[in-house]
Amino acid sequence: MTTLILWRHGNTEWNAEHRIQGHTDAPLSALGHEQAARVAPLLARRTPAAIVSSDLSRAADTAMPLSQLTGAAVRPDPRLRERCYGDWEGLTMTEIATQFPEAHARKRAGEHDLGHGIEPPADVMKRVGEALRAAADAAEGQTTVVVTHGGSARYGMFDLLGWPIEQLGSIEILGNCHYTELHRDRVRGWMLRAHNVGLVKGGSPGYE
Predict the structure, then answer these.
(1) Given 17, 18, 33, 82, which residue is catalytic?
(2) Is 33 noted as a catalytic residue in this protein?
(3) 50, 75 Cβ separation under 8 angstroms
(4) How many Cα atoms are found within 13 Å in the side-chain-facing hemisphere of 53?
(5) Cα(14)–Cα(167) distance, rounded to whole angstroms?
(6) Bind-site residues for substrate
(7) What is the pLDDT of residue 206?
(8) Where are the beta strands (DSSP E) in 50-110?
(9) What CATH code is carried by the domain that includes residue 11?
(10) Which residues does the Swiss-Prot or TrEMBL record annotate as the active site (predicted)?
(11) DSSP per-residue codes, 95-121
């Protein structure tokens, strides 16, 4: 059975400050490096055949302890980046509510077209879903760890499972260094086995 483990990166200073990161290359904090080192042995026991990572440093650096334990090289894939949040990146939701009140109100109402250079959810689902399928096909019948971001992991999971985007809010976002596990059965297709699994506490639920 083909398995994908979608592993969210460790903590960053912007996570701690509840700032939206998106495509901004915010680095791991000291806590983030510690989280990655603690969780890596758990994932190494799954003997992944491959490790694929977002090309942003907070994901790539999270992948490194696992790479060192398993000997598997980290393959970067920019399609695994977080949703681009355009003008909102670097801001807290409180700041966004002040600077972009109309768009903030639309977001709270569940609308997807927010403007301000923010990537449409359907586009995120498509690109992340493509990256996940490519990773699964490259290691058919084996386990691949995909190191990505909280939002993109959830969008990609919905794309693989064929779940409607309107239900996105019913699944919590991954905590820092937590993961989702998906299996692909030849008859039944993709199935969710586990979600938001991890050893560390205090992970930010914020936009990644």
Answers:
(1) 82
(2) no
(3) yes
(4) 22
(5) 27
(6) 8-15, 58, 82-85
(7) 47
(8) 50-53, 74-76
(9) 3.40.50.1240
(10) 9, 82
(11) HHHHH-HHHHHHHHTT-S---TTBPPH
